[in-house]
């Protein structure tokens, strides 16, 4: 007879794996299983540009950003940085008009924040204002396998399984954690989750050392270990249009060699959903913790929302004794 408390995490993108790791490490008496039909390198997270930026987030998301930044900063400062694909990245965010808020709330989360000098802005004649700072680049093709190893070390299990019914999982698990991203649309019928198109190019341009991002997020150049990522788009656009926008910012890209492109759908939602719910199984309420809807901010908010999900899982487990299972 098994009386260990068993937790299922649905989804193996950056949000699902972060959540599974946090639970497995904090609650060693629990058995944590990740169920997903796609693992790295085939997740939406694998296509992410992977640089930490804060948008004009409402209150709770500010806390998630700060907690994720601090977590990744520890990795970037450790011997694990190379294998985890997490490192510091310095550069500029530029604005066509001077923004109302010259020093945003996140300026004390990132490192070395300052206003760009006139000399720095000369490189970008169409732009009137800029912010210079150091943030973190997190490359999911390295980071996700690193999280998987960390999960295995904490005793977690990963199973390739397409979940189509959360109630069915309620027969096997004490708590279900839903990190299915866009999958929540069909899994839960959540109409607030909508596909947001993402498209990035990768080019070989090793001479580029600094990121450049236009404040609207539609054009960016992010150097990384596996090449330079060029983006971006929120609607259909062809690669050539993205490349031309980036080349106008950085003319030396004319000599860059193309490495590939990624097009995918991100789970957009007005706010990520991090809260409790339940499913009914044979008249029994099985707790569900939701953690999805991060849109293009999956990496940026991943560890912060995982820590909140852990608190909710703890609540659920404290409220119910483990089921005896044969």
UniProtKB/TrEMBL annotation:
Gene Ontology molecular function, alphabetical: D-aspartate oxidase activity; FAD binding
Protein location: Peroxisome matrix
Source domain of life: Eukaryota
Main localization of the protein described in the UniProt heading: other
Annotated positions binding FAD: 37-38, 44-45, 163, 295-300
Residues binding D-dopa, per UniProt: 220, 266, 296
EC number: 1.4.3.1
Required cofactor names: FAD
Gene Ontology process terms (BP): D-amino acid catabolic process; L-aspartate catabolic process
Catalyses which reaction(s): D-glutamate + O2 + H2O = 2-oxoglutarate + H2O2 + NH4(+); D-aspartate + O2 + H2O = oxaloacetate + H2O2 + NH4(+)
Database matches in SUPFAM superfamilies: Nucleotide-binding domain (SSF51971)
One GO cellular component term noted in the UniProt record for this chain: peroxisomal matrix
UniProt keywords, alphabetically: FAD, Flavoprotein, Oxidoreductase, Peroxisome
One Pfam family in the UniProt entry: DAO
Similarity section: Belongs to the DAMOX/DASOX family.
Primary role: Selectively catalyzes the oxidative deamination of acidic amino acids. Suppresses the level of D-aspartate in the brain, an amino acid that can act as an agonist for glutamate receptors. Protects the organism from the toxicity of D-amino acids. May also function in the intestine.
Official protein name in the record: D-aspartate oxidase
Source species: Scleropages formosus (Asian bonytongue)
Gene transcribed to yield this protein: ddo
